[in-house]
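Minutes, project check-in
Item: structure for the 169-residue chain
Input as provided by the requester:
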Amino acid sequence: MSKIASLPQFKQGKSVEAYLDILFRSLGFQIRPTTRDEERALYLGDRLFTQGSRQFFVEYKSGIQTQRTGNIFIETISVDDPHHYKPGWAFTCKADYIIYATIFNGCLLVFRPDDLRNVMDTLKAKFKEVPTSNHQNYGYNTHGLLIPLEWAKKNLAYQVIWLEKRRTR
């Protein structure tokens, strides 16, 4: 089992974020973590990318389990507790891009949040929506759509970034 896959969920995400920061800095981007307000209140994502005069916000998502399941997880409900319901990142993200890292599958999927929201009804009709297990999130579940990686690469991603050869589609 790889080092990243054996870490608890939160640490997995942070390890993937560090990997992505290194990768994108090597491609010439300056990267600044967003402030707590930018990330949690404004939903602008995890990072502000700058390259020359161009700036954009990016939300990182990690698909560690994609290698085992063959699916990506598009979160539709973040917290399902009836006292504190919260929609998932598919509905709340206001970043310019979502980078969904399927590192063990050798690629990153780039989504535009508005594009995801525009097809959400179609995705919900086509793919199964499932809850995560209680123990993963300490007493509440998240819910999301299980979408086959190959289908997502061909039909949903704005761009696919291949890690091994760094080619893009």
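Outcome recorded: Confidence is low (pLDDT under 50) at residues 1-10.
No further action items on this chain.
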